[in-house]
Amino acid sequence: MGQKAGIQKAALVLSATLLLSTILGACSTGKTDSGEAAAGGTDQITIMLPNFEAENPPENSPVIQKLEELTKVDVNLQWVPSSSYEDKFNITLASGKLPDVMVVLGKSPSFINASRTGAFWELGPYLKDYPNLSQMNEIITNNASIDGKTYGIYRGRPLGRNGVTIRKDWLENLGLEAPKNLEEFYNVLKAFTTDDPDGNGKDDTYGLVASKFNGPWDNMQIWFGAPNKWGDDGSGNLIPAHETPEYMEALKFFRQIYSEGLVNKDFAVMDATKLPDPFVNGQAGVMIDVADNAQRMDQKILEKDPSATGRVDVLQAMEGPKGLRDMPTSGYSGMIAVSKSGVKTEDDLKKVLSFLDQLNEPELQALLSNGLEGKQYEKKGDYVVPTTDKLALRDLQGLNQMLMFLPEDRAFRIQPTPVREKVAEIQKANEEIVVPNPGEPLISDVYAQKGPQLDNIINDARIKFIVGQIDEKGFQDAVALWKSSGGDDYVKEVNELYAALK
């Protein structure tokens, strides 16, 4: 979800017009920038991180104090509003004077350039020595890498996050089982459109709700056997997904469900923020997106009608010609990078990595996610009930931005609903069927320059094919335009990078 946008940003280097205040050279030495030893010889680490909340935790936050007590590290947090984080990040890079540790929001051109030119430690060779960091997922590590090297510890998110949210009450009303394969999926979409699933006697429902967000189409293509963005051509080279026969099979299915009215006619212009409305309002019966959308839809329906329990279910991918396949997310949301200007020696690096490893212990994950018992939450059996006290919450907010969740999220849970439990099961099960993108770690200069233009050619042609404005020859004409507009150069460069990486 945000990395692609970062990659497509144009500016490689910004001149420094403003220097962030940083505490330098103090990392892991037990000394402040004035050279004095920190209290009790405690190691000291400066971390730059974004805050998505209006207020930062105060320096005397009991949660931060507990963090320092448990880690025996004097933690100096440099907060930056999330809205201006990329700008501050670039200005700080240009200054050459970096804090010890920085949250990196994505593989932006400036981060890629800084990594390649030695501003950050390459962490790959060290991670095996740490119990939590050594358990980084291979696919996600690859996705987050630059030229196959690890310049940051990824902040983990569910890799198998995608799923199918469906109106369970409509299935029950029509006496249908939850669909498991593409044929059953089509039959459910048809029944939701033509068989009055809400029983109101009106022709006012349809199967699938989609918007101008490309995710659902990308997801369903994987079900049909198409590769995830890049696939093997059979001789060890990579070809783009849109050049495979499986991609065209998926397109023909999309065209069919559109022509039969099984998906909303206005999907190409519908704003993605409006996607939940038809589902919640009882017009559409299926959404294809992240599985955790199901718990949000369940909540929204219950807010409208507290008696409307059991209306929502969530399913795995539909089985296609190549079996069960699911499109993964990239599996991470930014990274934690260690700078060479702040952390100058290998010994200091190892101390920083020990601190970051410790942040993945269950006790530290719970502290930075949930806070302190009796202040930010109360215990209720195996679960926690968060406080609504805004002053208490201020002491915690934003601190989860330094968490990596390795090997998994081990913080305390709020009491789950049946839908929330099913979402967790599906995301876990999806990890066995996700189809990785072999091109994810490859940093293409052609794509950095022409990516948006190239993507638009294929996305526009896909929509035009689905809605019947062009036929198969028209789509092939668009592919030819893609090739001549830089696509051939892009494929050539990606394969050179892929060969070098292998």
From TrEMBL:
Q: Which Gene3D superfamilies match?
A: Periplasmic binding protein-like II (3.40.190.10)
- Family matches, as InterPro entries: Bact_solute-bd_prot1 (IPR050490), SBP (IPR006059)
Task: Using the record for this protein, list the coiled-coil segments as residue ranges, or answer none.
Answer: none
Signal peptide (residue range): 1-26
Give the UniProt keywords, A-Z: Cell membrane, Lipoprotein, Membrane, Palmitate, Signal
- Protein's name in the database: Extracellular solute-binding protein
